[in-house]
Automatic annotation (TrEMBL):
Pathway: One-carbon metabolism; tetrahydrofolate interconversion. The keyword Hydrolase applies. One of its GO terms (biological process) is L-histidine biosynthetic process. Residues 5-118 form the Tetrahydrofolate dehydrogenase/cyclohydrolase catalytic domain. This is Bifunctional protein FolD. It catalyses: (6R)-5,10-methylene-5,6,7,8-tetrahydrofolate + NADP(+) = (6R)-5,10-methenyltetrahydrofolate + NADPH; (6R)-5,10-methenyltetrahydrofolate + H2O = (6R)-10-formyltetrahydrofolate + H(+). Belongs to the tetrahydrofolate dehydrogenase/cyclohydrolase family. Residues 137-279 form the Tetrahydrofolate dehydrogenase/cyclohydrolase NAD(P)-binding domain. It comes from Enterococcus italicus (strain DSM 15952 / CCUG 50447 / LMG 22039 / TP 1.5).
Length: 283
C-alpha cells in the first residue's frame, strides 16, 4: 500500500503552530526576513511571492528587495552589508540563481552567518558537516521533518540521493548520516544509475529533469522523495519522478506539487523565527 506524503498539509500544520508561537512570544520586534531578488527569472518570482505570502500569514515581517538584472556585484554586496547591520531583519535570503556578472560564492559569503536562514554560508555548511548544525538548508531540513512526521525509520537504511548540489544533495546526505543512514550520493556521471537506485530503501531525487525516474529505477516498497520542479511540454509542473508509474510500487512518495516545496518555505519561516530568538537573546 502506498502513502502519498502530504507536504502541503504538514506545512500548513507547522505554519499554524509557528504563527501561534510567534503571537504568544514576548519578542520585542516581530521576526524579520528580507528576500533579495535580482532580475526577473519567472520561477524565482513565483518562489519569492510564495515566501512573502507565507511570512504574512505567519506574522513574520518581510520585505522583498528587487534589484535589476544589471546590478553590479559591488552594489549587491553593499546591499547585503546594509541588511547585515539592520536589526529589523533577522534573516537574509538572496534568491538564486544570480545573473552571470555576479559571483554567487562571494554573495553567500557576505551574508552574516547568524542571518543566513538559507544555511548556505560556508560556516553553517561546515557546522552541518561537523554534526553541529545551526542553520540548515531548508529543502533537506523539510525532508527530514517529513520523515519524522510519517515515522519513516532512517537508522541503518540504504539511502541514495540523486543530485550533488550544495543546496540539496550534499546537505541532505549530511543530515541523513547524522541519523545513522547509509548514504550514497549519485549524480549525472554515475554509471548505471538504475542499478544503484534499485538498491535504495529511500530514494531522494534532486536532478531537475522532469519525469526522469521511471519504475526501473525504484525498488518495490521504497520511500521516494521528489525534489524536482520542472515544466513539461504543456507547461504543467512535474517532478523528477514519473509519479503515475512509480507511486504504486512505493511505500511512501511525495507528489509534485504539494510535496517538498511547501516544506521548504515552512523551514525558512521556522529558521527565521529561531534566528530572531537567538539575535534577541544575544543583546
Ligand atoms: N533557488 C532555488 N532554491 C532556492 C533556495 O532554497 N534558496 C535560495 N536562496 N534560492 C533558491
Amino acid at each position: 500500500m502506498t502513502t502519498i506524503i502530504d507536504g502541503k498539509g504538514l506545512a500548513e500544520r507547522l505554519q499554524q503552530e509557528l504563527k501561534e508561537t510567534i503571537a504568544n512570544d514576548s519578542l520585542e520586534n516581530p521576526p524579520g526576513l528580507v528576500v533579495i531578488l535580482v532580475g526577473d527569472n519567472p520561477a524565482s518570482q513565483v518562489y519569492v511571492r510564495n515566501k512573502e505570502l507565507a511570512a504574512k500569514r505567519i506574522g513574520i515581517h518581510s520585505k522583498v528587495d528587487r534589484l535589476p538584472a544589471s546590478v553590479t556585484e559591488e552594489a549587491l554586496l553593499a546591499r547585503i552589508d546594509q541588511y547585515n547591520r539592520d536589526a529589523a531583519f533577522h534573516g537574509i535570503l538572496v534568491q538564486l540563481p544570480l545573473p552571470i556578472q555576479i559571483d554567487e560564492e562571494k554573495v553567500l559569503d557576505a551574508i552574516d552567518p547568524k542571518k543566513d536562514v538559507d544555511g548556505f554560508h560556508p560556516l553553517n555548511l561546515g557546522k552541518l558537516f561537523l554534526g553541529k548544525p545551526e542553520m540548515i538548508p531548508c529543502t533537506p531540513y523539510g525532508i527530514m521533518k517529513m520523515f519524522d512526521a510519517y515515522h519513516i525509520p532512517l537508522e541503518g537504511k540504504k539511502v541514495v540521493v540523486v543530485g550533488r548540489s550544495n543546496i540539496v544533495g550534499k546537505p541532505m546526505a549530511q543530515l541523513l548520516l547524522a541519523r545513522h543512514a547509509t548514504v550514497t550520493i549519485a549524480h549525472s556521471r554515475t554509471e548505471d544509475l538504475a542499478a544503484l537506485t534499485q538498491t535504495a530503501d529511500i530514494l531522494i531525487v534532486a536532478i531537475g529533469r522532469g519525469n526522469f525516474i521511471t519504475k526501473e529505477f525504484v525498488k518495490p516498497g521504497a520511500v521516494v522523495i521528489d525534489v524536482g520542479m520542472n515544466r513539461d511540454q504543456d507547461g504543467k509542473l512535474v517532478g523528477d519522478v514519473a509519479f503515475d508509474e512509480v507511486a504504486p510500487m512505493t511505500s511512501f512518495i511525495t507528489p509534485v506539487p504539494k510535496g517538498v516545496g511547501p516544506m521548504t518555505i515552512t523551514m525558512l519561516m521556522i529558521q527565521t523565527y529561531e534566528a530572531a530568538k537567538r539575535q534577541e537573546n544575544a543583546v
